[in-house]
Every structure is written in C-alpha cells, then in structure tokens.
Amino acid sequence: MNQAATVPFSVTDRVREALAVTLRGCEELIPQDDWIKKLARSEATGVPLRIKLGLDPTAPDIHIGHTVVLNKLRQLQDLGHTVIFLIGDFTTLIGDPSGRNTTRPPLTREQIEVNAQTYYRQASMVLDPSKTEIRYNSEWGDTLGSRGMIELAAKYTVARMMERNDFHDRFKSGTPISVHEFLYPLMQGYDSVALRSDLELGGTDQKFNLLMGRHLQAEYGQEPQCILTMPLLEGLDGIEKMSKSKGNYIAISEDANTMFAKCLSISDVLMWRWYTLLSFRSEADIAKLQAEVTAGRNPKDAKVALAKEITARFHSAAAAEAAEQDFVNRSRGGVPDEIAEVALSLGDGGAPLGIGALLKLAGLAASSGEGNRLIDGGGVRIDASVVSDKGLKLGAGTYVVQVGKRKFARVTLG
C-alpha cells in the first residue's frame, strides 16, 4: 500500500521550501503530489527519505555536466535526507542503450574497476562524504542468478519495452537490438527495489529507466519512488550536450587555471543556464545579477564570479583567486607564475634544434607536423614573440615557449 498517498501529513513551510529546492532547474518531477506527501511524512516522522543517483563508470573522469544531478543531490542532502550514490559496476557490463542508435560495446570488468576507483572520490567534491551511502549494484546483480533474472524479466512486456524511443527507432530502421539490452532498464529499475528508494535522479535521457524503477517497486509491493529529471548541460560550445567525446567538457579533475579559463570561454547567453544548473547561489541572487547586466553591467563580471565559484568548489577559494590572476596575466601577454620546466639536448655536436621538433619534445604539440601547423596559424610564441618561420632553429639557452593561450613551457637547450 502506498503510505505516502494514504496517510495525511501537514504541508508545512519547511515542506514547501524543500519542494522549491527540489524543483530548481529540474526538467520534470513525477509525480509531484506524491513527492510533496513523502516530504510531509518525512518532516512529521523525522525519517529521512532515501534519494538515489546511479552512474555507470564508463569513463575514468566525471565532468561538470555530471554535477548537475550531483548538485541537486547535495541540495537534498543538506535538507537532511539520505543520499545513495550508486556505482553501476554490474549494469556497465550490459551497456546503457539510452539515446543510442547502435549497441553499446560493454566494458570489461577490469576497465570498470579502474574507472569506478575514481568515481566516488570525484563525486565527493560535491557531496558530503559523511552523509553519503555508497553502493555498487553488483551487490545484488551478481547474486540475482538466472532464476532471479527470469522472474525479473517476467514483470515487464516486450510491447512496453518497444515503446522506448531508441528501441522503437532502431527496430523501424532495421538496426539490430541485442536481447541483453532489454536487461539494462530492468536492472536499473531493480536497483530501486534493492535500495527501497523514495526518489531517483537522472538526466532527461534516463526517463524510461527511472519510470521502470517505479513500475518494478509496485510489482514487488513497495511504495513507488518519485523521479526527478535534470536537463543535460550544454558544453563549452553552447550547442551539444557536454561530452568528453565531443571535446566540449570541463573535467572536475582539471587544474584550477584550465577550469577557470574554460568557464570564461562560454557565451554570455549560456552563462545564465550554467548559473541555474551549476551555481549554489540563490535564485534571487542570480536574478539580481542578471538584472544588473541587463541594466548595463559588464557580463564578464558575472562570468568571472561563476568561474570562481565553480573553480573554488573543486579546488579552493585561494586557487580560484590565483586562477583569475593567471588568466589576467595571460590575457595581457604575461607568463604564468608556474610553468613546466623542460630540459632538452641539442643535436650532434651541439647542432641547433628545429622549432617543430622542440614543440614535440617539450610536449607542446603531438608531432612536428602539428607544431608546423600551429606556427602557420600564428599560435606559437618564443619569449613573447610570434614565430612565423617553420625553419627556425634554436641554439643553447633558455626560452619561454607558448602555444595557444594556455600552454607554456620554459625550455632549456643544452
């Protein structure tokens, strides 16, 4: 029986505040009335709600696009609820078909273990580790067994599974669908049964899987979870969703200077969406700042504030201040305080080293050919002077070599 739906509890001001926190920046809350009842019950009984987020360790690093849901998780955690950070080490073996037009190649157990090692450490930059329950879905996935998997599969129909857009589109186009892909939403839904979750978070592309959790909880006699979908964050280009494969991302493990500079590179329009989804400032503060920019304040002031907030979250306030100063120095043609020190040897008999080879050996270009292309584009400087001669050769000495806006090295030839 759905206790949240049958037992009346008062909707207090604290419940209304918690609902406002839940709704900030979200795409959908399903069903909202049930969530209000769950919040009211928790407020009246003092029993925290169980809030779940699952991430499959398909890559070793988390980027700030992932932190849209992590931020929401932290906000709900600060309200006193139990946060469950679920690492999908079992479901990753299947491969999430969400949004795919081909079968996703599953990772090996070894790849998954390597990636999983860094996930929680990185997520802890946003979540409060002392209030976070970390789980792995191999705990129940590995022990479910063949009989349990057959019983689970019997609780959903193929017709309902084919309502899913990516499966429907692939079937219509004749693109193969492997039977094991049907197991992914079933297993993600079963995670909610195993954890008895009250709310599950995910991106908009996960809606089908999240609804599966509600369905299976009801099938197993549990109170169905509510689901909260968050928008997919656009990357640095402001067009595509943030993705490592598209190169438009900021990894939360990047150094402070790079993180700050990348944040400043986004458009003035995209900045406000990032404020809503990534900033911990109140909506009133953001609205006030936006009104000031509309009235004539330089939008760069707002962008710098956002860049500092994000950089400080993953590093420190001091690192964010230093990154801002580093960016100012670079924009004025200055050299950062800390740059790589590289020692290289000259050729036989002390022969000078060609600029292309120097860029490659110093780690500033992937190859001599790429170095030459950078020179053609005017992107290489030595001691602040632009290099235009691809045939340039350098003798013994120390040089500050710059490639683009952010790559520097102090190279000593001898």
TrEMBL record:
Coiled coil: none annotated. Keywords: Aminoacyl-tRNA synthetase, ATP-binding, Cytoplasm, Ligase, Nucleotide-binding, Protein biosynthesis, RNA-binding. A motif ('HIGH' region) lies at residues 57-66. One of its GO terms (molecular function) is ATP binding. Its EC number is 6.1.1.1. CDD domains: TyrRS_core. ATP binds at K244. PROSITE patterns: AA_TRNA_LIGASE_I, S4. It is found in: Cytoplasm. Pfam families: tRNA-synt_1b. It catalyses: tRNA(Tyr) + L-tyrosine + ATP = L-tyrosyl-tRNA(Tyr) + AMP + diphosphate + H(+). Belongs to the class-I aminoacyl-tRNA synthetase family. TyrS type 2 subfamily. NCBIfam families: tyrS. Catalyzes the attachment of tyrosine to tRNA(Tyr) in a two-step reaction: tyrosine is first activated by ATP to form Tyr-AMP and then transferred to the acceptor end of tRNA(Tyr). Homodimer. This is Tyrosine--tRNA ligase. It comes from Albidiferax ferrireducens (strain ATCC BAA-621 / DSM 15236 / T118).
